[in-house]
Amino acid sequence: MKRQILLSFSLLILIIISQKAKAQDSLKVNAPVDTIIYDDKLSSEGHLYKFPLSPLSQVEYTQFMNNQYATSDVIKKNKLYTKLEVTTIVEKDGSVSKYTVKGTGTEAMKNEIVRILKLLPKNTLGTRDGEAARFRLHQPFEFKYE
Question: Closest Cα to residue 108, out of 62, 143, 67?
Answer without folding.
Answer: 143
